[in-house]
Specification:
There is one protein chain. It contains 4 helices and 7 strands; from the N terminus they run βααβββββαβα. By secondary structure, it is α+β, with helices and mostly antiparallel strands. The longest helix is centred in the last third of the chain and has 12 residues. It is elongated and about 65 Å long. The protein has a domain of 80 residues: Structural Genomics Hypothetical 15.5 Kd Protein In mrcA-pckA Intergenic Region, Chain A (Roll). The strands form 2 sheets. The protein has a 5-stranded antiparallel β-sheet. The relative contact order is 0.15.
């Protein structure tokens, strides 16, 4: 980890080193679409240089992550090493167990086999919003 004063690293590389994205390409797409903020400023360039102490805000799936950069990585290491690169300022809220989960469209029970033609048509109607017979 780089701990030199004044050391900087590209934001796309840092997000990849910290294992928020599986590839730098995905990090670049997220940055380019304007979903990443550094110290409350929207960043659209993947070559924006970050340093320890900067606060990043970005959406990752359904969650909005608020991260403070603690250190700059020199490589994309294991997850345990990546977690030392940042401090999570907004830990994810635990899910309320009393709220039911909504089933995903087209979810099937395990072991029920391949859907029949009738089942596929019913799934198509369900996903298109027509409802079932």
């Amino acid at each position: 980890m780089t701990a030199e004063p004044g050391a900087r690293l590209r934001i796309d590389k840092w997000l990849w080193h910290a294992r928020f994205f599986k590839s730098r390409t995905l990090a670049v797409k997220c940055i380019g679409s304007g979903h990443v903020r550094v110290n409350r400023t929207v960043v659209r360039k993947p070559n924006y240089a970050v340093q320890p102490g900067d606060v990043l805000t970005f959406s990752l799936g359904p969650h909005i992550r608020v991260i403070e950069i603690a250190a700059l990585g020199e490589r994309r290491g294991p997850a345990s090493e990546a977690q030392t690169l940042y401090a999570d300022l907004d830990p994810p809220r635990p899910r309320d167990p009393s709220t039911p989960r909504l089933p995903t469209a087209g979810a099937r029970e395990r072991g029920s086999g391949r859907p029949t033609k009738r089942d596929r048509r019913a799934l198509d109607r369900l996903t298109e919003g027509e409802g079932l017979d």
